[in-house]
Design goal:
Elements (H helix, E strand, L loop, with lengths): L1 E3 L9 E3 L4 E3 L1 E3 L2 E3 L28 E2 L31 E4 L8 E7 L17 H7 L2 E5 L5 H4 L9 H16 L5 E10 L2 H10 L10 E4 L9 H4 L18 E5 L5 E5 L3
Parallel strand pairs: 3-6, 8-9, 8-10, 10-11
Antiparallel strand pairs: 1-5, 2-3, 4-5, 7-9, 12-13
Length: 267
């Protein structure tokens, strides 16, 4: 997390989140907090489980470096390996760039990165939120989520769309914790591009995500959209069913939450 501050003090910025105290760093007049856990790492028995809230801590925790991303997400869109901790010590992590002070009440931008649902991590340079926090007067939040098979594969005994549940968990963290960082949960906007934009569209149709964000910005949404039947774990589609896709044979229809999606015209 980062908070723009015109006169930063000489000591590192500290805030207290619900789970415990956090110590960040000043970077070019912006308070930056990295590697904040918003859920327990999806490893071991939690690998294919719904996200669980992060356990609390008693000492002030350093939040100055990124934590590991999901293994499938550790490549860039150009196929290059992304540096970071190796192995399977992955942990969904979060970075915020707000203006410090519980009374600031700044608008909050929650960014979901793209990557075709199979790659990507919030620690890539192109997702650096410091300029927005410094020049735009907003709190910027980025986070990692499960991708690839660990996200969308239908596996017997595992909840559907685990990565979407990760996204919801991040929004819930913002709702419960953003105020000490200077943000206003009632002015939060969830934003994303390509797969991140598709994630935003899916969240708009997801009952579990209702009320988690008052605003949404979906950029370059890919051709797969989700209705509520595809975003609710309790509504497992029938065998052989496929998500609705746009195209020349598609007919626009309204899903139950009055959000757009398209459905192929069946013969």
């Amino acid at each position: 997390m980062a908070v723009a501050e015109s006169k930063p003090s000489g000591s590192p910025p500290e805030v207290r989140a619900v789970a415990g105290g956090l110590r960040g760093s000043w970077e070019a007049g912006v308070a930056v907090f990295r590697g904040i856990p918003f859920a327990e790492p999806p490893v071991g028995v939690l690998r294919l489980a719904a996200p669980r809230p992060a356990q609390g801590w008693t000492e002030v925790r350093d939040a100055v470096s990124y934590r590991s991303a999901a293994p499938a997400g550790r490549r860039s869109r150009h196929g290059r390996a992304v540096t970071g901790r190796g192995g399977r010590q992955l942990a969904d992590s979060q970075r915020l760039f707000p203006d410090l002070g519980t009374g600031a009440g700044l608008p909050t931008m929650v960014w979901i990165q793209g990557g075709a649902y199979v790659i990507g991590m919030s620690g890539l340079p192109e997702y650096d939120g410091r300029p927005h926090a410094r020049d735009g007067g907003v709190v910027v939040v980025t986070f990692n989520y499960r991708v690839g098979r660990e996200d969308f594969a239908q596996i017997e005994g595992a909840p559907l769309h685990r990565g979407l549940l990760d996204r919801v968990a991040a929004l819930e963290w913002v709702r419960d914790n953003i105020r000490p960082f200077g943000g206003d949960a009632d002015r939060a906007a969830v934003c994303g591009q390509p797969a991140g934009g598709g994630s935003v569209a899916a969240l708009l149709a997801m009952d579990r995500a209702a009320g988690r964000s008052r605003r949404a910005v979906a950029q370059s949404v890919p051709g797969t959209f989700f209705s509520s039947e595809w975003t609710e774990p309790s509504r497992r589609p029938s065998a052989g069913a496929t998500p609705a896709r746009s195209g020349s044979q598609a007919t626009p229809t309204a899903c139950r939450h009055r959000r757009w999606h398209t459905r192929p015209r069946l013969p």
